[in-house]
Each structure stands twice: as C-alpha cells, then as structure tokens.
C-alpha cells in the first residue's frame, strides 16, 4: 500500500476548492480526490483517505491513484456496474460477484431514484441512495461488560414511529459479525475474545433495505481489577491488594497504578503483581488510588478507584510536669513526620461527673487552670491538621493537691492544755476529708492525732512550755495538703502570796517533806496512766493507719480498674472512629462508582478527567471549546498518560495542547511550560516549518502513538483535560 499522503507547504490544503477537470472527493465534494478505493468504490481526498492507512480492516482495501475511468463505479473483477450492496462485507459489488465471490452473503439491490453517494466512514459504510434518508439510532450505551460478552442498548431514532429494525455489526481485526434486531433496542453479544478491542455499529434499517448512517462505539473486553483491599496502614505508607478480573486470571496482564492527593498531579507506576506498597506519604492525608488492567497488546480497562487516608500520628510522651491546688502543667513531644505539616493540638480535661473542657494550642505544653483542689482529672491530647482530621487520643490522669486549712487560731491556753481551731478549706464541700494535727515542744517527738471537726483540744501539756502546732487536710486517698502552723506557750504555775518569806520557806519545806512520799507515788501513777494513755492512742492511731492504708489500697485498686477501663474505652473509641472513617470512605467510593467523579461524557484517569470531542475544529477553536468547559487541551506528562490517551476509543488524529506558534521551534504546552521530556515525535517530526505550528497525536496500531506537527487551521477532533 502507498504511504499515507501528508500536507506539505505550498501544496493544496483541505480548504482549497477543486479545479476544472479534477475529480472531487466523494465524501466532501469540495476537495480534489487523491486516491480511489477499488474495494469501497469511492474517491477520497487527503483528509478522508487517512483511515484507510490507520484502521486495520481498511488497510486491506485496494487503493489506486485517481483517474477519470476509475470513478465510473465499475467492478474491478469484470468491470460490470456496481448494483448490489453486500452488508456482510460492507461494500459495493456487481451482480455477477453477488452470485460468486459473495454467494450466501446478506445483500440488497440498489435503487436508482436519484444520483446517490457512497461514503466510507471509518470501517463502516453508509449508503445514502435517495432523498428519503432514515434517521440513525441514538448513541450506543454499554449496559454490562465482561471478559467475553457485552450488553448494548441504543435509543429509538428521532421522528421514526412504528416497528423498527436495526442492523448491528461488530468485529476486531479482520473478523466481522452482523445481526438484525427487530422490535427492540438492545442486544447481548457473547463469545467475544478476552482482551480485544471491538468496534460496534448500529444502523436503522428500512423494509426496502435502506440504512441510516452508522452509530459506532469501540470498547475493549478488558475488565478492571476487583476486590481492592488495604492493609498495613501507617502514618507514611500503606499496601493495596487486588484480584485479577473474573475470567481473566490466565490472560497475560499488567496493572497501571495511579495515586494522588488533592491539588497534585498523579504519580503512576506499572506492576505485574496484584499488590503495591506506597511509601514516603504525608501523614493524615487522603490519597485517591486507581488500578487499571493493561494487556500485552496495550488495551486497558476502565480504572477502579478507592480513597485511603494515612494515619495521623498522636502526640508522644504525654507527661504531667507539675501540680498544685488549682492548676497543673502537662507537656508532650511532637509526633514524627509532621515537621513540614501545619498542625496543632486539642486538649480535653475533666473530673468525674462533669463535661470536658476543650482547648487548643500550637505549642507542646499547656497549663490547665481553674481546677478544683484535691480532685482527679482525666486529660487527653490529640494532633489536629488544618483540614480538621484528628489523630488517636493519648491520655493521662492527675490529682490536684488538696487545699490547706484556713485561719489556724489558738483559742485558749492554760497550764496543761490548749484549744486550737481552723476554717474548712474552699472547694471541699462535696469531698470526704479529715484533718491531721501534730504538736511538739523542743527536743521531743511530735504527737499526731486526727479529727473530722474544725477544732481540737491539746491536753497533757507541760506548764510554761512553748509548743509548735501544724494542721493539714487529708483526703480519703491519703493525699495531704500543705501544712499550716502556729505556736503557743502553756501558762506558768504560780503560788499565792505569804506575809513572810521565812514563813513561806518553812511551810514549803514542810510540804516538801510531808508530801514527798505521796508525791512520788502520785507522779509514778500519773506517769503510768500517761503511758497507758499514750499506748492506747498509739494503738488507736495504728488501727486508724491500718484502716486508712486498707482504704487507700482499695481506692488505688479501684482507680487502677477505672483507669484500665478508661484506656479500653479510649482504644475502643479510636477503633470505632477509624472504622467509621473507613466506612465513610467506602461510602464515598461507592457513591463515586455509582455517580462518577467526572462530568457526563468525560473519562477519568488517575485524578484527572478527559473529554473526546464529537466534532472537528481548528486547534484554536478546539482550545476555546476546552476553556468553555472549564478545561484546556490535554497536556501529556507521562508514558502512562500517553498510552491512556492513545487508547481513547478509536481516535486516529486529535489535537493536543502543544504549539510553537509563539516562537518557531520552541514547543510549549498550553500552560506555557516548555516541552522537555518525554517526547514522542514521529520520525522526522516536527518538520513543518512556519506553517505547521500545532501538535496532534497520531494513532499507531502498536498502541503507543506518536506526535506530529500540523497546520493549526486544520479541522479535526481534540481532547480536553481538567
């Protein structure tokens, strides 16, 4: 077959009109024909002959140069008039060939009402043989696709009522099948080859054999992967697993993986495995991951996607630095991996039976104020990102110091006793507590006693002696407040006055001598009684101490139990929160699968959406159409995106967002970034000089596709990206 014709500077372009004596194109009737297809029996200009060089089925047709005798529509076998149309082979034939080479095929005799025109559009032939043209059916919709079957549907033709019949054809490479559908608008086709690209076409068929123009769609029997599952989710990594599509387990295939976070370009990779580990990710960030099946022939499935959010690390080493009566200071370390990420911390604290107090800070410490004295508090801290995402909670407990007794006062003092009192400290109205009193004189051990009241009488004191007295508040858990203290001095014993010092001395000596024996006995008895009293007090104090120790141990055990239960509840809350977030992501993923994240008529690849035009325009008008859609002409950033666009339906030539119209030879994308790499120029391209300043992608059957430069005023399809 001759090489495809391409435009050269100075030669005719599609906009030029034909000159007298030249043969016009049977398709557009306005441009000089350059080739005649003996299979189609149609003349083609440079534009419309292109598909005979790119579509595999049309590449088998016989092309010759245009001459006047060749366009008389004669059979190239016996030069008889072409009077019959073969629907099976989709070509014009003569009556003799209908009985020989095409015997048994689905054929129809052409009517000659008016001069008609045969056109070859792609690999489908549309017959327009009279003014009475049948309306075509609506666009083809894919109801269900498996690895070896497809269910198609189409809408009823406009302005056509009553029973309707449709001709449906499909095929890949050189194999073509055809069937007629009567009274319905859908068809299930089975026994397809897995991993092949098929062209499906539907036309309205009249009772006299006339047909409308064909409505076509192409798709591949490539089913996307299934059962996407995520495990080993960490702060900066996760692993994604999937299964091969049902029925394609033995078909050689690879997988194209794309992942991105909002506002960034997707990162792509190709793997032969059914799993992929993503690392070096940002903590607490949502990633969209898509997996596409890619066969050895380059055919791709639709991508299947899911959203995964990496774990946000919690604060580390939560510590209680100091505690007093009404405040406490806590601190923590910054979680790993957040050096470049904006974040802050949320602190919550409360005592049992109260609502939590919540505050935030960007530092790694905080002072909690306005606390109640002698009260246990539960404190939790979590990391919070700018988007509101929160980490798991870390927690601790602290107990504020009890308040000390207030206004310690010595109420009365005599020779051997003294009365002291104090006020109840603030904030303990609902808290069980008592007071511990200690008193001593210099050089002696302190006497310790307790009382639940706000006063006490200290007895068995020595006359004329200074005593120091301390009082503190004691909670049920054994916590002591700070000490408050005072001093007192007992009264000195004084004798009554006598008229004579000598008489007083005599009387005193007599008393001493007379009472010595009884005094010694009384002192001994008093000391024994005092010893017995101290022993009894000691035993009582020991019993009280044992009771308080037992109560303290019980309270400590109860505290430990409650703390363990709280830790379990916090862990359960964190687990439930994670499960809720995952379920929400799954709901969003299912909603995305049902509704799609791209507008209708657009196709998704990674985190981008792509639109293939249904009409043809110049490069500038194509870009203007993209801008009106909130997009721009496609910018190709990777080999995977190049492969994806090249497999976009049955595109042969489309505009892309590449031009050197500003500076000749300096190719830039539409976002003004220079073209560096990758480059997919065809051999010898770009080579159009100052005339060809816009880029297109040209389909090659190998599946890769190449770039060519072309005149910007040429009209063809385009692809938008957003």
UniProtKB/TrEMBL annotation:
InterPro entries: C-type_lectin-like, C-type_lectin-like/link_sf, C-type_lectin_CS, CD209-like_CTLD, CTDL_fold, ECM_Regulatory_Proteins, FN3_dom, FN3_sf. SMART domains: BBOX (SM00336), CLECT (SM00034), FN3 (SM00060). Pfam families: fn3 (PF00041), Lectin_C (PF00059), zf-B_box (PF00643). CDD domains: Bbox1_TRIM8-like, Bbox2_TRIM16-like, CLECT_DC-SIGN_like, FN3. Gene3D superfamilies: 1.20.5.400, 4.10.830.40, Classic Zinc Finger, Immunoglobulins, Mannose-Binding Protein A, subunit A. Residues 531-553 are annotated as: Disordered. Keywords: Disulfide bond, Lectin, Metal-binding, Repeat, Zinc, Zinc-finger. Residues 77-110 form the B box-type domain. Transmembrane segments: none annotated. Residues 605-721 form the C-type lectin domain. PROSITE patterns: C_TYPE_LECTIN_1 (PS00615), C_TYPE_LECTIN_2 (PS50041), FN3 (PS50853), ZF_BBOX (PS50119). Residues 136-225, 314-403, 404-494 form the Fibronectin type-III domain. One of its GO terms (molecular function) is carbohydrate binding. This is Uncharacterized protein. It comes from Hucho hucho. The lineage of its organism: Eukaryota, Metazoa, Chordata, Craniata, Vertebrata.
């Amino acid at each position: 077959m001759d090489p495809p014709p391409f435009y050269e500077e100075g030669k005719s372009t599609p906009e030029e009109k034909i000159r007298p004596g030249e043969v016009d194109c049977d398709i557009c009737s306005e441009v000089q024909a350059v080739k005649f297809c003996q299979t189609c029996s149609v003349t083609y200009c440079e534009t419309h002959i292109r598909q005979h060089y790119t579509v595999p089925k049309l590449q088998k047709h016989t092309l010759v140069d245009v001459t006047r005798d060749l366009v008389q529509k004669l059979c190239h076998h016996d030069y008889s008039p072409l009077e019959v149309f073969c629907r099976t082979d989709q070509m014009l034939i003569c009556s003799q060939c209908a009985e020989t080479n095409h015997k048994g095929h689905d054929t129809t005799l052409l009517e000659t009402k008016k001069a008609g025109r045969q056109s070859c559009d792609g690999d489908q032939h549309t017959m327009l043989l009279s003014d009475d043209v049948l309306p075509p059916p609506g666009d083809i919709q894919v109801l269900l696709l498996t690895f070896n079957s497809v269910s198609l549907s189409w809408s009823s033709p406009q302005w056509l009522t009553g029973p309707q019949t449709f001709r449906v054809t499909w095929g890949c490479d050189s194999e073509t099948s055809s069937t007629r559908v009567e009274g319905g608008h859908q068809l299930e086709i089975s026994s397809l080859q897995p991993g092949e690209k098929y062209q499906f076409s539907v036309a309205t068929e009249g009772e006299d054999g006339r047909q409308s123009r064909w409505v076509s769609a192409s798709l591949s029997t490539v089913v996307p992967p299934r059962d996407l599952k995520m495990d080993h989710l960490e702060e900066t990594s996760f692993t994604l697993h999937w299964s091969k599509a049902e029925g394609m387990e033995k078909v050689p295939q690879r997988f194209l993986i794309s992942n991105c976070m909002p506002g960034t370009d997707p990162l792509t990779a190709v793997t032969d495995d059914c799993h992929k580990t993503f690392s070096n990710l940002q903590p607490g960030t949502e990633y969209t991951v898509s997996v596409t099946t890619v066969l050895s022939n380059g055919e791709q499935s639709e991508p299947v996607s899911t959203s995964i959010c990496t774990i946000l690390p919690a604060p580390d080493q939560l510590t209680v630095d100091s505690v007093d009566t009404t405040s406490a200071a806590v601190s923590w370390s910054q979680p790993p991996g957040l050096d470049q990420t904006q974040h802050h911390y949320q602190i919550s604290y409360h005592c049992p039976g109260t609502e939590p107090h919540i505050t935030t800070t960007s530092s790694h410490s905080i002072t909690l104020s306005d606390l109640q004295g002698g009260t246990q508090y539960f404190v939790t801290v979590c990391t919070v990102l700018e988007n509101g995402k929160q980490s798991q909670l870390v927690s601790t407990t602290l107990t504020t110091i009890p308040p000390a007794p207030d206004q310690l006062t010595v109420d009365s003092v005599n020779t051997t006793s003294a009365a002291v009192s104090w006020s109840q400290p603030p904030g303990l109205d609902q808290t069980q507590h008592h007071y511990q009193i200690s008193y001593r004189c210099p050089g002696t051990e302190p006497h310790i006693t307790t009382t639940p009241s706000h006063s006490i009488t200290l007895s068995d004191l020595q006359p004329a002696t200074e005593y120091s007295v301390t009082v503190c508040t004691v909670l049920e858990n054994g916590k002591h407040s700070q000490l408050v203290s005072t001093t007192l001095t007992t009264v000195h014993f004084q004798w009554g006055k006598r008229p004579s010092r000598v008489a007083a001395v005599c009387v005193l000596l007599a008393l001493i001598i007379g009472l010595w024996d009884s005094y010694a006995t009384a002192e001994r008895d008093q000391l024994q009684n005092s010893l017995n009293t101290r022993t009894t007090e000691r035993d009582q104090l020991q019993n009280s101490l044992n009771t308080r120790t037992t109560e303290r141990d019980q309270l400590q055990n109860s505290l430990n139990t409650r703390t363990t239960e709280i830790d379990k509840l916090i862990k359960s809350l964190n687990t439930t929160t994670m499960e809720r977030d995952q379920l929400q992501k799954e709901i969003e993923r299912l909603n995305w699968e049902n509704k799609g994240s791209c507008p209708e008529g657009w196709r998704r690849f990674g985190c981008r959406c792509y639109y293939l035009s249904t009409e043809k325009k110049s490069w500038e008008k194509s870009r203007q159409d993209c801008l009106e859609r909130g997009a721009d002409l496609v910018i190709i950033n990777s080999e995977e995106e190049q492969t994806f666009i090249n497999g976009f339906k049955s595109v042969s030539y489309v505009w892309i967002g590449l031009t050197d119209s500003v500076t000749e030879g300096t190719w830039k994308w539409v976002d003004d970034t220079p073209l560096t790499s990758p480059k997919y120029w065809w051999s010898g391209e770009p080579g159009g000089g100052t005339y060809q300043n816009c880029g297109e992608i040209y389909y090659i059957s190998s599946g890769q596709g190449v770039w060519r430069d072309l005149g910007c005023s040429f009209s063809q399809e385009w692809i938008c990206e957003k």
